[in-house]
Amino acid sequence: MPLDNNAASAYTLCRHVSAYTIFPPTPAALGITIYDIAEKAGVSIATVSRVFNDSPRVSDKTRDRVMNVAAELGYQPHASARSLARRRTEIVSAVIPMITNYFFTEVLRGVQDRMAETDFDLLVFSARTLDEVEIQLDRALHRGRSAGVLLFSTPLMNGMVERLTESGQPVVLVDSFHPAFDSISTDNRRGGEMAGEHLIEIGCTSPAMIMASPDSRPAADRKEGFLSILREAGIPADDNYVVSSSEGLNHGYSEKSGYEAAKKLLATGLRPDGIFVTSDIQALGVMEALREMDYEIPADVRIVGFDDIVVSKYIGLTTLRQPMYEMGSTAVRKLMDRLTTPDRPVSHTVFSPHLVTRLTSGGAVANGSAITVRTPG
Predict the structure, then answer these.
(1) CATH H-level, domain 188-322+355-374: superfamily
(2) Where are the domains of the chain?
(3) Which of 188, 185, 146 shows the shortest CA–CA distance to 167?
(4) What are the start-end ranges of the H helices in 250-323?
(5) What is the tens place of the pLDDT at every residue in 230-254?
């Protein structure tokens, strides 16, 4: 999530691997977590949690090893966290829109694998629209009696911030952002910029964009980045070259949405030589529409998607890869850290997208055996 100058000055940016973790500037931001203790002690995080919560399911030898490592690292279990752990149910709730979407399937896989390392069970609340998200969130907070909530791709509106705060449950936002809550996201604006840069670099002079619903914050950020690059290059970047989905279901992230948007774009008489699509699943529909209208890809039009879902490499789709599995895994880690150390500073992890060039933009062969991956500069 790009920060404006004022917001940027309020944060310290620490880069690690392919992610940016942003913490309010405080020494506690670099504090030890139960993951550090588990790694050094050679046990699982579930075992560390049992030790700190005085569970009888841990041997004296293991308990001593964990406590010695904790003392060595200067870690002090939070008293209120231990008290809460004894009262709560061992359930984590995940509120997920578009659960059948390829993106969420992969993110959820990361969540499930990381959850398997803990003592918690996962309870999933699925939704198709923003209205349903609010209903399911209410169920997760008040009926699920969960220890914490993972909230996916949902803009916080209509008093949702107050409801989340008043619930007293730790919350981690996934594919979203709010300064009051821990979050995981991708730099969607930068991804849009990279798509524009790539299409211009390969010679496109009249690129267009097919996006999901404007209500989708990730899609809106990708649009903002894409159009900014076109403007810098002196290429028309008005709304005539952007077709957004009007499909309420799944925010327009579907093959049908991409198919219909491509038909609508070409019906205007515009003849783009490149198209940036805000998700790979939409790009599948775009490609089908182009083939029906006798366009050759990439000879007549180049295509760039976003996500890098599994099917993309088999159809040779150039795309912006975001680490979906890692996003899910990192979200669980943040939630476990928040449960163990409630007073730790709020943190925001922003992953960097990577450009993967394949057949649809004139790159490698369709089976994906030879691809080019570019890290943003």
Answers:
(1) Response regulator (3.40.50.2300)
(2) 188-322+355-374
(3) 146
(4) 255-267, 280-292, 312-315
(5) 999 999 887 888 999 876 556 788 9
For residue range 285-308, what is the model confidence (pLDDT) as tens digits?
999 999 999 999 999 999 999 999
Mean pLDDT for all residues in the chain: 81
Euclidean distance between CA atoms 59 and 57, whole angstroms: 7
Alpha carbon 36 to chain centroid, angstroms: 24
The residue behind tokens 């994906």 is 368
DSSP 8-state assignment for residue 353: P
Of the listed ranges 15-29, 31-45, 104-118, 146-160, the one predicted with least confidence: 15-29
Q: pLDDT by residue (tens digit) across 183-233?
A: 999 999 999 999 999 999 999 999 999 999 888 889 999 999 999 999 999
Cβ atoms of 22 and 12 closer than 8 Å: yes
d(CA 155, CA 105): 20
The residue assigned the tokens 């922003």 is 350
Cβ atoms < 10 Å from Cβ of 316: 22
Instruction: Give the integer Cα–Cα distance in Å for 128 and 266.
Output: 29
Strand 242-244 vs strand 207-211: parallel, antiparallel, or unpaired?
parallel
